[in-house]
Amino acid sequence: MFEPIGLGTFRIQGKKMTEVVSQALDIGYRHIDTATMYRNEKDIGKALAQSRLRQDQVWLTSKVWHTDLEHKKLLDSIKSSCEKLQRDYLDLSLIHWPDPTGDIPLEETLDALMKAKQEGLIKNFGVSNFNRALLKQAAKHVGREQILTNQFEMHPFLQNRAIANLCDEYGIRVTAYMPLAEGKVMEEPLLQEIADDHATNPAAIAIAWLLQHKRTAIPSSTKPEHLRTNFDAQHLHLSPQQMHQIDSLDRHQRIVDPDFAPQWDD
């Protein structure tokens, strides 16, 4: 099951990554998000192998880097991810970033993902960092129902409403990465005020806000106490007024904007 809260693993590697995944599983996380570019799939695989949980009890997402979007390279990338993660299949494979060169047709990449699904290498596929134009192109080629999610940066200071609204229209789940804005949510007075009302911290409020908007959130942390607070955010309930107040924090403050990114909608 594609749980609404998962563990983000960007920038965590080695023994620490294995420890964090083990701690997260003990807390109750059943959704782990990684990517070939993170170079931590083997570390995550060790934690999964040490766990008593069955393969079908932990949802595993990985992503294919934009240099591997040609048909055969994509299939090889997914097979490599499965091997490193010690899995027979991925629950979800994403196009990490669209091809910045324009040399590889999006349709070829999507066809390769369909092939991976047919062969049982993946259960589902989706996209990441797709703008409206790219999502429309993808949906036209494979059908909206084939695209499980579009993963992109989303937090109170960057709400990406244009692409999020299109995802909602298409019935495509939004997965929010950088949901804590690299910790900047901890410095926001309004979030602290709301956190005080709920006896928690601003990070949990930011996550709860996303979850109440029917978004999937994948916060990351290396500290057990933060892992637990983030996970427990799913049990918070913000009032309509509090939701509206957080909605008003949108400042279009984008954190992730590499030179190979597509033309953003917001």
According to CATH, the fold-level topology of the domain at 7-178 is: TIM Barrel
Give the low-pLDDT segments: none
What multimeric state do the chains show?
A: single chain
Q: Roughly what is the average pLDDT, rounded to an integer?
A: 98
The largest β sheet comes out as:
8 strands, parallel
Kindly report how far apart the N and C termini lie.
31 Å
Spatial extent as radius of gyration: 18 Å
Q: Describe the global form.
A: globular
CATH level 1 class label of the domain at 7-178: Alpha Beta
The percent range for strand residues is 5-15%
Provide the spatial order of strands within the biggest beta sheet.
1-2-3-4-5-6-7-8
Number of strands: 8
Number of helices: 10
CATH architecture classification of the domain at 7-178:
Alpha-Beta Barrel
What is the helical fraction, as a range of percent? 40-55%
- What sequence of helices (H) and strands (E) makes up the elements? EHEHEHEHEHEHEHHEHH
CATH superfamily of the domain at 7-178: NADP-dependent oxidoreductase domain
Structural class: alpha/beta
Strands, helices and their partners?
Layout: E1 7-8, H1 14-27, E2 31-33, H2 41-50, E3 59-64, H3 71-85, E4 90-95, H4 106-118, E5 122-128, H5 132-142, E6 147-153, H6 161-170, E7 173-177, H7 189-197, H8 202-212, E8 216-217, H9 224-232, H10 240-247
Parallel strand pairs: 1-2, 2-3, 3-4, 4-5, 5-6, 6-7, 7-8
